[in-house]
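Re-run with default settings, no changes from the original entry. Doing this only to confirm the output is reproducible before filing.
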Amino acid sequence: MRDERSSARVAPVLLVLLSLCGCRAAPTREEVLRSLVVGQLVPDMTTLARASAQLTTSVAGLSADPRTLAAAQASWRTALLAWERVYAFRVGPLVDDSGLLRARFWPTRDAALARRLADPEPLNEASVERSGVDVRGMYALEWLLFVAPAQSLLEATPAGERTRAAALAFAQNVQGYADRALVLLADGSALAGTLGQSAQESVSRLVNQMIGTVETLASDRLSIVLELHAHDNLRASEIQGAPSQLSRALVLAQLTATEALYQGREGDGIRALVSPVAPQIDARVRTRFAAARTLLEQLDAPLEVAVVRDRARVLAACAALKELELALKVDLASALGVTLTFTAGDGD
């Protein structure tokens, strides 16, 4: 009896000591996946839907006043960064209905867009939905708002009305994808449960997506700019986000969202599975993320401008992304028992 009473007194004390030490059981894969869906994807999707709705409102308000164009451009920038952030976590309704692909496909076909503006066919969401991915979506809107026909958006002419109608149709189509996906996602419980049914496979898919994202940022964003600059051939049409001067911001949006997948809100992301079994790998991955992010932030200009001002800094940022890619491919995949199956642009 005395031993039982002693054990009864000791057990709560041990629990208190463990809690004071910050000691707790490592989370399961199911718990980490739920945390990421509820803590990152749902808030990011909510932000996306709001930004897309604001974009539609701003585009609907376009008139002959130049201030309305500036407002629409600002709303477009905010919405595109929200789309780029969501791209880092490519699961759920927005992927299932190809909305992510259709809303943010790049590059657009400028000549085809110009012909479409001259076409008498009514422009509305239904006709946009029947269109190819390279003549619709956020980057078609970029062309309308920032490039060739931008001034016609302000004209009180049939051509101006046609251009404004196209911009509104594109914005409404994009908003539709965001709204429908958010309704289907709801609080994320259903998606988290589905991912948890095959937790190791889901973690492997997520890690492969992280690797694919970082590889694409290094090879298809920074390396392209460096190569074009080396050949004295910097053209906005070849650089994603150049017309709107968002090329660097787009890279940062995807990188920080990918880093958030690893970190989680309170260390409860993918790293929660790594740090208990491989603390050195966890430290190395976090260091590589921070280094790449810091170097990109220090560029402080769109990529096409930064590479002219200081090519060495762009080279350093590209090298940091490649080092991060290697850490994810070799260290992180090994620590989690992940088989590399990704292809660049996975889910896009």
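The chain has two domains: 45-191, 198-336. The chain has a mean pLDDT of 90.
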